[in-house]
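Support reply, case 0932

Customer input (verbatim):
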Amino acid sequence: MICKKEWQQFFSNLTGYIIIAVFLIVNGLVLFVFDDNIFSFGYATLEKFFMLAPWVLLLLIPAVTMRSLPDEYKLGTIEVLKTLPLTPWQIITGKYFGNLLVIFLSLLPTFIYIFSIQNLADGNGLDLAATIGSYIGLFFLAAVFTAIGICAGSFTNNAVVAFIISLFACALLYYGFNAISKLSQLSGGIDYYLEMAGIDFHYKNISKGVIDTRDVVYFLSIIFLLLLITVRNLKHKI
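Our regenerated output:
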């Protein structure tokens, strides 16, 4: 019920469609139109898409999730949720999966890139194992970013503040640890563990086409922890 409500609310106005359209247009322009596009590589690859997509999602997902909980607090509809026969976990997971479905919907049209490049390529075309692995990594990354967005919204009733917190947290978790690990003062062992703490490390591992259970456990653990924090925040509100 909550999942369906989130889905319908997102597409009840043009904002939802505009956000998804912007994501697809930006990726399409960078891949096929702007300088240094995929045609300049000389071989079939979606590497540039999988390098760009996380940064676009880093902006897209906070924009999708920013109103999910803050609007409930601001409009007082959180009181209505309190009267429903639902536990805080059911409310949060409903909101989480509702937002996640929106993100997955925006990723689905990008599959056309695979068919386009396969048809344009000479020879064997794309490395399908690596491409599938990269998409799995992208879905996990989107799932973590969505959990961050929902969690950020549980701290405030201001959608803009939720967007900023979510944007900063996504950037930190995705690339922040990797950037810190490159400091010369941290070289010699600790740099590797700092890099492992970031999403980028595990996203790149899965993108190689090999699904390691350690990477899957990492993503699922981060999602669970973020949703647990969100549930605790919601309990204080209701």
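We compared this against your earlier run and they match. Two observations from our side: The two ends are 19 Å apart (CA to CA). The mean pLDDT is 81. Please reopen the case if you see a mismatch on your end.
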